[in-house]
Design brief:
Elements (H helix, E strand, L loop, with lengths): L6 E5 L1 H9 L4 H10 L3 E6 L1 H14 L3 H10 L2 E4 L1 H4 L14 H10 L2 E3 L11 H8 L1
Length: 132
């Protein structure tokens, strides 16, 4: 499999959290696939702040622990400058989800999210069936 054959996806905070909470879950298996190079994951830089809040609130982790976890994830965080021109083309109503959709438009790939309102949402079961 060469680099151009690798599946690419934008990943949302809820999938990342599910993977961290339960590494054996479907979301956890997606992260494992990224660690083995079978999928390339991207996310908007805004996801980092959201993930810090969620991990602190839901798992009681300290900032240093959270930073270590985030830096170990096989996810490339993309700066707003890269996707900001596509923000005006987003269709989702929920403002915090706009960067995710804008990044997916920019990168021309689907979205891994538990939120069903994304038009370009990837079915996790189909993805796992294809890559595992």
């Amino acid at each position: 499999m060469n680099g151009s054959d690798i599946e690419r996806a934008v990943i949302d905070t809820n999938i990342i959290f599910m993977a961290l909470y339960n590494p054996r879950s479907k979301a956890g298996r997606v992260i494992q696939l990224a660690l083995t190079g079978k999928i390339k994951l991207f996310s908007a830089d805004s996801v980092k702040e959201e993930l810090i809040r969620v991990l602190n609130r839901e798992m009681g982790l300290k900032d240093k622990e959270i930073e270590q976890i985030i830096s170990a994830l096989p996810i490339e965080l993309i700066n707003k400058e890269i996707y900001q021109n596509q923000l005006k083309n987003t269709k989702v109503k929920h403002k915090p989800d706009k960067p995710i959709e804008a990044l997916a438009i920019t990168l021309k790939c689907g979205i891994l999210s538990a939120n069903k309102h994304f038009k370009k949402r990837i079915d996790v079961d189909k993805l796992l069936g294809k890559l595992e």
